[in-house]
Amino acid sequence: MLFRSKLNRGSVWGNAMLSTLRRSRITVNVAVDGFDVQPPNMRVIEATGAGAFLITNAHPELQRFFTPGEELETFSDAGDMIAKIRHYLENDDARAAVAVRGRARCLRDHSLAASAAAFEHVIETKLGAAA
Questions:
Q1: Which range scores top for mean pLDDT: 9-18, 25-34, 84-93, 105-114?
Q2: Distance CA 22, CA 46 (A)
Q3: By the 8 A CB rule, do 82 and 55 touch?
Q4: C-alpha pair distances (Å), 105 with each of 2, 49, 64, 65, 72
Q5: pLDDT digits (tens, 9 = 90+) for 30-40
Q6: Per-residue pLDDT tens for 81-102?
Q7: Are 84 and 76 in contact (CB under 8 A)?
Q8: What global pTM score does this model have?
Q9: How far out from the chain centre does Cα 38 lie?
Q10: Alpha-carbon torsion 56, 9, 89, 84, what sign?
Q11: In 3-state terms, the chain is what percent helix, strand and coil (to 5)?
Q12: Containing H/E element for 56?
């Protein structure tokens, strides 16, 4: 319990959360459903968009959003997660490069502007087909 209390600095939200993610050496995300059927959660977008190095559980849908090993890192089980965390803690340049590529992909494909443009395209396509 003492170990956990030293690591827990309380909840952060909004801009404070994004700043915390940006300052972290490694952000670990474990989806609530673990390795089941849900697609990647919002933390994937929040962390990469903030410029954090993200390691998250492997998921078949994740490749629709990011390239694992290039724009974020994945793990298959607890042992794999620990091994990869140790690897990236010892390789600052590799960790920073993944974080930079993840942020660039997030801003390019998953920003509010990108989402709005995709939505606009869907609406225009549907309206054009109806006319």
A1: 84-93
A2: 10
A3: no
A4: 38, 8, 12, 8, 10
A5: 877 655 556 67
A6: 999 999 999 999 999 999 999 9
A7: no
A8: 0.82
A9: 15
A10: negative
A11: 60, 10, 30
A12: strand 54-57
